[in-house]
Amino acid sequence: MRRISLVLIAIVLLVGAAAAQMQQKTLDIYVFDTEGGESVLYVSPNGETLLFDTGGGNQDANKRDLARIATAVKEARVQVLDYVIVSHNHGDHVGNAADLATLPMRNIRQYLDHGPFTTELQPGQRAGFERYLAVRNMARARRAMPGEVISLGPVQVHVVASAGEFTSTPLPGGGGTNPLCSQHKPKRDVRGVENDYVVAAAVRFGSFSMIELSDMIWNQEMRLVCPNNLLGTADVYHTSGHADEWGSNPVMVHAIRPRVAVMNNAAVKGGHADTFRTLRSSPGFEDVWQAHFSMKNASKADNSPEQFIANLEETPGHVGYHIKISARQDGSFTVTNGRNGFSKEYPARSAAPAATR
Fold first, then answer.
1. Are 92 and 57 in contact (CB under 8 A)?
2. Low-confidence ranges of the chain (pLDDT < 70)
3. How far apart are CA 153 and CA 44, in angstroms?
4. Does the domain made of 26-352 have the CATH classification 3.60.15.10?
5. Beta bridge partners of 346
6. Which of 285, 118, 298 is nearest to 195 (CA)?
7. What is the pTM of this model?
């Protein structure tokens, strides 16, 4: 009887240790340098994965960004891409969608997008979409639906917009009246109309939340938080529209109250001074992490200190370092600069952050 009791105790201890080990695992997020495009790899604690956009553009950009994605796929030991979301059909987002099968892994289980169409039919604009469509017609693919939740084990990906339609269901913690709505100033977006149809999402892991709006336009951002804030609050905001002046509506940014923003800008694309000001004036905001030093659209004083900037070079062929976020269920997370190894720990809300190397 005593031996059986000891065995049972040992089993309980092993199960408890395994559960504790799982609880300590992180959601790892790799924000790639796509020179002002977009591609983000999410690796759940249980190993399931999501690639949000694919970077690229022209032939050289496709090759460059695919190599950068491949490096992280090897580092994270990704065997399968469970989901690939193509937010919209601009080349810097859809460019490598047709080439992902060449990555060092077994397969891709599911593509999601705003639908098998493009709103921009000029030959130069539709080239990336046509390459992707050829793959989409053979793959398991479907339209992402506003309000649906994609599960990556303990990680939930809430689709908040797709094909110009928006969720009507508040995220956990969302739904309250937004008093900032009266401050909304409409903007007429002069970028491509594909941006009207982006797939946008909120990624949640326990108490941690990251908002991923792709190239959503200024006026549509308002629709997600007015009259009620459907998004709630976020720990990390991946800046919309490459942090250019056409996104990051203060009515939305200040409502979600991010602690950290990650800019997918390039040296001469995005990273606008107005966006820096919007972020830093948001309640509770702490830091801007940048894919690149912003040379054209912001001053040196607008940019973050160099340890928060992944890439300082603008010359073609530079390494292209990524920014990595490691998030935990209690809402704490660490951000690391791939260029210099600088990292900063962000404890669960209400605790003071600490920087490390």
1. yes
2. 1-24, 351-357
3. 7
4. yes
5. 333
6. 118
7. 0.91
